[in-house]
Amino acid sequence: MPRTLIKDLHDHIGKTVLIKGWVSVRRDQGKMVFFDIRDMSGAVQGVVLPKSAAIDVAKEISIESAIAVEGSINKRPEKNISEGKANGDIELQIETIEVISAAQTLPFDITTPLHLDTYLDHLPLMLHTERTRDIFTMQHSILEAYRSSLRRQGFTEFMSPALVGGDAEGGSAVFKVDYFNDASAYLATSPQFYKQIMVGGFERSCTVAKVFRAEKSATTRHLSEITQMDFEMGFIENEREPMRVLEQTIKDTVAAVGEGHPEIFERFETQIPLVPEEIPVLTLREAQKVLGVPEEPDLDPEHERALCAWAKAEKKSDFVFITRFPTATRAFYTYEDPAEAPYSRGFDLLFRGLEINSGAQRIHDHDTLVARIRERGLDPLKFSYYLQAFKYGMPPHGGSSTGLERFTARMLELPNVKEATAFPRDMTRIDGRLSE
Amino acid sequence: MPRTLIKDLHDHIGKTVLIKGWVSVRRDQGKMVFFDIRDMSGAVQGVVLPKSAAIDVAKEISIESAIAVEGSINKRPEKNISEGKANGDIELQIETIEVISAAQTLPFDITTPLHLDTYLDHLPLMLHTERTRDIFTMQHSILEAYRSSLRRQGFTEFMSPALVGGDAEGGSAVFKVDYFNDASAYLATSPQFYKQIMVGGFERSCTVAKVFRAEKSATTRHLSEITQMDFEMGFIENEREPMRVLEQTIKDTVAAVGEGHPEIFERFETQIPLVPEEIPVLTLREAQKVLGVPEEPDLDPEHERALCAWAKAEKKSDFVFITRFPTATRAFYTYEDPAEAPYSRGFDLLFRGLEINSGAQRIHDHDTLVARIRERGLDPLKFSYYLQAFKYGMPPHGGSSTGLERFTARMLELPNVKEATAFPRDMTRIDGRLSE
Predict the structure, then answer these.
(1) Mind telling me how many Å the CA of B370 is from chain A's nearest CA?
(2) Whether the complex's predicted ipTM surpasses the cut of 0.85
(3) Which residue on chain A is closest to B21 by alpha carbon?
């Protein structure tokens, strides 16, 4: 008999079906045994009646075992209907059960909250919970909606490299790789140079890229390996154009996940984010006035949270742009118009208290870029491949970079970004813990 | 004046427009200067007449400069129409030219074939050519079509890690990374373990993942960093189910790029690949009989080419599956049914002479997997995170992995897979050459 997916059971009322899935719940009531069974498409309640050939097997099955079940799909009597629950009006009367893959006894009740380290140690098991699957279903949809929106806006996606040849920016927070013949390589801290190079050919480029940060920092926000969703666009007038593209991408993404997953927002007791027609924009100085704090070159996490609270209360927005940071605090390739000095054309996007995106107009003139590299004490020779793109008609351009894990974490208001990473790497952990 | 994209010029006949783009060609005819100008959307011919205010600037502009041009869109006289060419029936009469970003003199004629090393050294410049952009436009579309097809088939996409904690499989071809506190990490050679772990929760998982190979091999097929498009699916009967999913994905991808880019296939003088209703399947032994060669445990590259020629001639297919390789030649997690020993449930997919995909049914039983790890002389303790997934109801499952660069290279019949990689890394190259 071919397998029927649980979402299609309604088409088989009164008939015998074969379903395959996992045992979420087993309730042994002595004479009868009830099961909640789930597959990739949904869940259904099954019952093994006293006279069923499956009754002995049913009493032995462990939670989270993979099983194949044959039985008939019956309408539930009116009084037993679970309103508002998928398949709440039907029940599977189980005739045979095959245990495809028996689960060992679970080490703890997986439906109760765990300490983060215990949770991460057991992620392969925790994927059996609805909460964990919800997080990565949401992430899958964010990823797809974000890329789709950029594609509709004319961006060509490319694969940005993870291995890079030099520790060009001179930061200490870079992982070193033993390469061939005693050469060293490094892990990319950003797809920045490569997406700019692509702009020289395609005008609009985007990439979903892994980036690596060797920061010795153990906060809830730091990971060694993260995913950035980047775009870069040419022939712009100023940073407002990438900000508008980002705004459209955020709108499209929020609309897609709001429409696709209302039940996940409900289960996480959070709301679909508010995105007004225009996301509010504050210069850094305006932001500091709103906060009533003195002029400083950057915002600290507490300020980011307070500004988001302000944007939500005053502008009905879960997002707020901050612009005009001092050039000295931004990456060397950030564009500064002499009339606007010492402020640059960079911007950050805050979402529910956290910076999830950073962007800017970039320097496009070759000689200005070389001069800026020298000013920062770096060696232009180490940038020669990147600089090549600027020799041949690089248009004014800009773009931005969104952290997928941060975006996912704030979407569901998770306390820790590590929960929004299927396989988080940090100072103490790669899969298991490093020091144990 | 707002910018008009070149693809939209037909809506502006008789009107004045502002376009921005690059100078592909400049033909100075003494009194008049003709330009071919391109942007992300298309190309158009422009002319600067003798009395135009732009004539002096026009005579100085270097090829590949980025310019902004104002002028009027005119219908060409009947005799000047270029049939079958986009915008072949209109011409831009240029009134003003602003050089946004002047190109330096090109180091060579970028429209003629180059030695591969010279080509790769100048990739940022070569992105200005139609040929190079065609390759990465095709790759972008393959990537998107492949993922879309898997999404439609119910797969959840996740981000597989690049940093892994142990050199678990004991291969020498693994890059080592200096991690925190004197710990070592390694670069992933495959997303295999992680997609299997995801199957434990999602039943169907997929990922586009960077993988890294430290093989000291300098053939046209070897790269240090490649992109794999992977999927894995649970509750299967045997390897035929992932083969069917792969077949559907290949069909959808070929249909999408065939429909989307007929002009690229034309420019590369190749055909849209042939995919019959059922891609032919040969066991390794059958393949060796077709070739008239003795029984060996694997195929060599020459055999792969000959089998593809056979499939094309006999089955009207540019693709052919090879199945039933000896278990000993496949990865330790490959499923072997005792009745089928010593052959495994692995498969390869060949495309135009090259293996582009490898897949299998996998072992799903925890104890069998542990025994197989031991048989291969490996330490199960080093696999404990991975093995955790097999303790809790791992269903029978299988999947496959397609190399994006190889798929792209054979799609356009490129002589070298490095041309199908925007930023190739190999023994001698990361961006520039390593030893120079």
Answers:
(1) 15
(2) yes
(3) A235
